[in-house]
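We modelled the chain as a single entity of 127 amino acids. Its sequence is:
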Amino acid sequence: MQNALLITGIGMGIVFLALLLVWGLMEILMRYTRERKVELTSLTEEPITIQAALDKRKIAALAVAAVLQQRRYQAAQQAVGIALKKEEPQAQAINQNGRAEASQWQPVMRALQREERMRLFTRKPRG
């Protein structure tokens, strides 16, 4: 029992030391890799920070993204309009008996359903 407690204590100590080591490494990395504000001078001698230049780029990128999003929205609206026009009820062809003709896909789908049902009864038993 004494050995088990000792092993548990050593294991917990190693885990906490590893956590402290990782925390220390993260602090060191943050300290040396942090962005520093550097002032740039333009032709007008106005100080411009790197952050301000990045903000202008971000604003331009957002404007382009907004325009693209608007065009996608308009394209989607047009696509929905076209799809709705195609979905309008069309007059079905009526055969000589006075009944509406079946779609060309209907027999194909029925055959596929029949095949699936038959597979349930004809599958090989396990073992």
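As a brief sanity check on the tokenised model: The mean pLDDT is 79. The longest helix spans residues 50-86.
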